[in-house]
């Protein structure tokens, strides 16, 4: 079973993403509300996937993804936002993240598609 860490500063999104992903067969092993805790929890939990909001209160998701990559973590980072990927220009493509999913398109299928790419 694929393990997931959900990182988002909105508790309501974390709860709905958890319910959706668990219903579709993912094991949500943890949550974080900011970038600093995301890095700590990813290190501690060693999830397969980190679903990472781009806009966090203490740093951007791009910065968090860079830190996780620099630490040599094995998690596949998937960026998410209520905005479209095109709103971030080349930042998504230049990021070490596996890809980007708009929040309104989040599904197990969308995650699987990025992981298989």
What report would you give on this structure?
This protein is α/β, with parallel strands linked by helices and 117 residues long. It has a single domain (3-107), classed as Response regulator (Rossmann fold), CATH 3.40.50. It has five helices and five strands; from the N terminus they run βαβαβαβαβα. Helix 3 links the parallel strand 3 and strand 4 (76-81). Helix 2 (35-45) packs parallel to helix 3 (61-70). The two termini are 19 Å apart. The mean pLDDT is 95.
Key terms for this structure?
117 residues, 5-stranded parallel beta sheet, globular, alpha/beta, Rossmann fold, 5 strands, single chain, 5 helices
Short description:
By secondary structure, this protein is an alpha/beta fold.
SSE map:
Blueprint: E1 3-7, H1 11-23, E2 27-32, H2 35-45, E3 49-53, H3 61-70, E4 76-81, H4 91-94, E5 99-102, H5 108-116
The CATH superfamily is known as Response regulator
**Strand-pairing-aware structural class:** alpha/beta
Question: What is the number of helices?
Answer: 5
Number of domains: 1
How can the largest sheet be summarized? 5 strands, parallel
Q: Largest sheet, order of strands side by side?
A: 2-1-3-4-5
Mean of residue pLDDT values: 95
Low-confidence stretches: none
Backbone CA Rg: 12 Å
> CATH class, anyone?
Alpha Beta
Helix-residue proportion = 40-55%
> What is the CATH T-level topology?
Rossmann fold
């Amino acid at each position: 079973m694929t393990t997931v860490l959900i990182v988002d500063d909105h508790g309501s999104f974390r709860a709905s993403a958890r319910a959706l992903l668990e219903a579709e067969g993912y094991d949500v092993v943890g949550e974080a509300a900011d970038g600093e805790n995301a890095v700590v929890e990813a290190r501690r939990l060693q999830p397969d996937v980190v679903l990472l909001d781009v806009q966090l209160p203490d740093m951007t998701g791009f910065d968090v993804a860079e830190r996780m990559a620099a630490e040599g973590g094995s998690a596949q980072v998937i960026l998410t936002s209520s905005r479209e990927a095109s709103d971030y220009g080349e930042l998504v493509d230049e990021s070490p993240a596996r890809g980007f999913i708009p929040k309104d398109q989040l599904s197990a299928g969308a995650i699987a598609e990025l992981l298989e790419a």
